[in-house]
Write a structure and sequence with these properties.
This protein is of the alpha/beta class and 241 residues long. It has helices at residues 42-50, 72-78, 95-104, 113-119, 136-149, 166-182, 194-200, 218-221, 223-230; strands spanning 2-13, 16-27, 31-35, 55-62, 65-66, 80-83, 154-158, 186-190, 203-208, 211-216. It has one domain: 3-Layer(aba) Sandwich (Rossmann fold). The strands form two sheets. The protein has a six-stranded mixed beta sheet with strand order 6-7-8-3-9-10, with helices on both faces. It is globular, with a radius of gyration of 17 Å.
Length: 241
Amino acid sequence: MTMLAVNNLIAGHGLLTAVRDVSFDVEAGEVLGVIGANGAGKTTLFRTLAGVHSANSGSIALDGVDVTALSASRRVAGGIAMVPEGRRLFVDMTVRENLQVAGENGRSGAWTLSTVLAALPVLTSLLNVVTGGLSGGQRQAVAIGRALMSNPKVLLLDEVSLGLSPVAIEGLYEQLAGLKGRGDTAMIVVEQDLDRAMAFSDRVICMLEGRIALEGRPRVLGKPAITEAYFGLTHPESTHA
């Protein structure tokens, strides 16, 4: 079942077009990895999907419903949640308060405080801790938990491992693997680590200068082809596998 369908999306900042004619689908329970060098358009794509940026043209459909013109808050209510680069938590509030705020502004569903804590047990002992005092890995777990509290159909994870220690990254991806195993939420993950992206994703798209340069299943594409697309060594037309 297609959970998110993006068709011929064009978006940017002012006169700069950062996303150029991008199209892809994501199924329920599927993980789509988005890779590409800095400036490839990944973050603008995510912010456009979440409603933070407006699309210049093209369409975004969530579970069959066109959400292209909806505000960010209405997309959250409809089922799109983003874990942004840099976490952007309420640092003067406790973990519990951060989670509860998200729960009050999202959809009703299976994700509650108790189910989020079961999925992300690292948060259980941190509920009454002010978020500003947490480590990077702990903050990232809170950011993911906050997104889950809105009961998303599609979870956008932008640079989830950025700035984390290797140990924190391992712990984070163990938790994400648990979420993936549930099979009820589509995930789109921006990840700079190619090996990590290939191992965790069911499919990957590699962006180059705002376009999709390569798309397919990691094991079929192979790391050499993905690396070439990442650095712009392949023909700029989209390639599928």
